Amino acid sequence: MFKSHIIGYLLGLLIFVIGIPALMWWVSGRPFPYVPDTLIRYMVAALYIIGGLGLSIYSIVYIRVVGKGNPFDAYNHEVAPRTRRLMTEGPYRLCRNPMLVGIYLYDIGVLVWLWTALPLLVFLVEVILLTLQVRSEEKRLEKDFGQEYLDYKQRVGRYW
Questions:
Q1: pLDDT value at position 73?
Q2: How high is the pLDDT of residue 45?
């Protein structure tokens, strides 16, 4: 069971923390390593990156410890064991997808860091694909948790 959790975490790290930002950097045409021209942009980017990673990591740890599961469920393919109960506390009391909100904040930090247009297209494609994933996951959660999930969905927004 521990091994299957590790696979899910590694996939998340490779895709969302390394892969998508690396693709954003690559399409930006910026040299590597790249340091922004202004201190303000550097500081704003760093705040978004650190805050986004912090929120994502907190959400992952919370769902692992409290929910005894892993959130990474890719288009109805279980990558790691699912949670055994509906997560409605901790970061999940503020929004239904705090992990993704953290990833989006992290990516916005990367966008501010790079400050070119093409990475924005990568980000928009990511948002579209992850929104489709979330919708698929919502159907599964509705099936798994029934009215409890429907009530939670009415109280708490998808992203905010």
A1: 58
A2: 96
